[in-house]
């Protein structure tokens, strides 16, 4: 895992193809703001943008560069729904509330597209995503799920694709069928984050990079502590996701950082007629430790797979991810791997986001569990809404239980490793 203060990962295709943004200055001395935000990813940037557009004096502190963390390193996939499917949310919360959570996820997709359109963000947005069944016994349930979304949730942009047609679309025959979601899609996440930063700064948000927050002091006015100054604000938003060590114990006990890895091949014609993913869609599968992939505009395969739970990345990220890619595309055994990188995201126990007011003056948006491209920008907007004219906008997320990991901060890692090892074994059986 990288240390704060480092630049964007040098071996990332996203870094190589980013629309460069001049650095924002580090903080220098004590400052005051209406709202102070910790973290320059999708949540923090969206909150800063929406608050600044409403005339709120907002300061955003980022330890490295905006979009440096998971927001600028992920698979770039825009999924429908929450991280948990509607059958799970119905069982937990009932049908009415499950439909509200689905509606929020639809709002989230519309927000991403709306931000791109409104601010002219060039981030390679493309529609379409396949969700694939990697075991035959999953097919019947997945087909029923498509019917449920269409019939009970009124979502007509999804359809079932049989095994042969799916193999033709993906360029691999390892899956037993899947769903094509025309309302989902994919984008260049770092360029999306950089576009949000440009828009937030233009709206009047004060952004400070290379500014590590080392502590949060309570009291009537919360104070963020940094090595080069203190920021006092009426309200603090903690949007650092998996990078909030030592700032807020409540968040650390409930939000667990894990590492995920991505590669790109040399250009192989992906996303074009005659190549794999010839329709340009992204794809992901039914593994708990998920595989996800998509074509890039220059015809590469961008593939993500494999997780680790320690503070360090594998010594050879290329080899680590390549073995997973070859499980799906053995025909690319001889393809050159041009880029490979890792990033730290964050999960919660129930895989639902932790978006709420923690206590007076302190709010959090974190723990998106792999659904951050879609839900995190909405999380930022909901927090902005709650701090201005619509406090009830947080209710659906804030009222959901988000239990701490067993053992809290210090035992959460071995607990999660044991659970993920079991799930990884289940994926293979």
UniProtKB/TrEMBL annotation:
InterPro entries from the UniProt entry: FAD-dep_OxRdtase, FAD/NAD-bd_sf
Keywords, ordered alphabetically: Oxidoreductase
Gene Ontology CC entries for this record: cytoplasm
Coiled-coil boundaries: none
Molecular function via GO: oxidoreductase activity
PANTHER family documented for this protein: FAD DEPENDENT OXIDOREDUCTASE DOMAIN-CONTAINING PROTEIN, SARCOSINE DEHYDROGENASE-RELATED
Pfam families linked: DAO
UniProt xrefs under Gene3D superfamilies: D-Amino Acid Oxidase, subunit A, domain 2, FAD/NAD(P)-binding domain
Transmembrane segments: none
Residue ranges annotated for the FAD dependent oxidoreductase domain, each copy included: 34-385
Name of the protein this chain belongs to: FAD-binding oxidoreductase
